[in-house]
Amino acid sequence: MKKAFIFVVSLFLMIPIWSQAQTFEDADHDGLSNIEEIERYHTDPYNEDTDGDGYVDSLEVSNGYSPRHGDSQRLISVDSDKDYLNDAWELVLGTGLMNPDSDGDLYLDGTEVAASYDPLNAQPVKLDKLIKVSLDEQRLEYFFGGKLLDSFLISSGLDSMPTPVGEFKILDKVPVKHYGGGDYDYPNTKWNLHFTTQRYRYYIHGAYWHDNFGEQMSHGCVNVDYEHMEPLYWWSQYNTKIIIE
Fold it and tell me: Fewest Cβ atoms closer than 10 Å to its Cβ: which of 58, 121, 133, 195?
């Protein structure tokens, strides 16, 4: 009995050491630990290139690409568990990449995020949505519950036609809009977020007619490339707070 007791105690003392070793073990030497691969990214811990696209898993993750889906698909463009929440946001928010209902409340994670609810809390707790635009840096960032979902370059208004500064909120969401004036004509512009009406109406919107993001280009609106504007438009809601400074 004494020997059996000593054996059990020895095993108990070894558990933390074993768990710690598993945490840092990287069987395929791809820069991601076995635990990360299994529990966070759902990649193969014994295959350095899970999707077989020629790039190791950690390199893809660090550059915003999916290690599970080939063809150079970005994390923000794929939805592994079909819950309407892209893989990039799942990783930021800590929801299950392969669990469509992380908090078990019978609502899909993406459905909850779209309506501002916390996808990790089975109680109906709402989280703040915030869009921030820096005119000095020509950059837009947006946050859900204080967590940064994305950050990218934009093009704001020229000095002669500046973008309004201050605190605003989304007044309307317009899927497709025609922008036109004396020297420009941009029909079928997708994903438009109306945030203020002063002398003119101002929008954060997609822009297909230039690729000079990071430079002032617009007539006062905030131009965003289509790749980034589509998920921002989907995520945004009426009354979402916008700070432009």
Answer: 121
